[in-house]
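Chains adopt folds. We examine one example:
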Amino acid sequence: MSDDPGSILRLEGLRKSYNLGKPNEIEVLHGIDLTIGPHDFAALVGPSGSGKSTLLNMLGLLDEPTSGELYLLGRPTARMSDAERTALRGAQLGFVFQFHHLIQAFTSVENVLMPLMLAKGKPSREDREYAIDLLDEVGLRKYADVKPSDLSGGQQQRVAIARALVTRPALLLADEPTGNLDTKTAANVFELFRRFNQTFNCAVLIVTHDARLSASCDRTITLVDGRIVSDEVEVSQKADN
């Protein structure tokens, strides 16, 4: 495993158990070692029940490991306080979930701006212009002042994608990000992720069951029964590195 000090994310022996100390204790993740670099554009795949959602929660600092360590931008996080983890998550991670979790009382652009509002209060004019530019990137510029209840499910998902990118995160975690989108929009969103990856060195990890989507990524990490069973990089990427 790499000890690259420039890594975005590094896991060392990460384990996660539920019902700890009880007769029905179960270990879901069994000593995961993994490094994600700033240029990585990777897919996380595996059958249902393999531990993908649990691992995604660990990577997103939404849950704590039972043992092992997770380094985000070189900082160990396992013993951080909730406040420290929340601050680091808000500043460095972007999330696209299967369910968009938009605030219904806010407009599209206000939803996109929410991470910035939480971090620093009232957004600047430049922040708003950037948020509108992101909505334009996902084909929703004219819906900037529309509330989620007046958008389709696919449109709401695209607002959530713009929201995930507004902080220019070091790592974007996407859980089935194109599942509710038509083929053309899904391709546009994928290319938007690509541009962020290349322009801002934003590492991208996509959890997906879509074989075509994972095949389009540069790296495929396969999780089975709580263990990484393969971690494959495209030959062209190996040549480039």
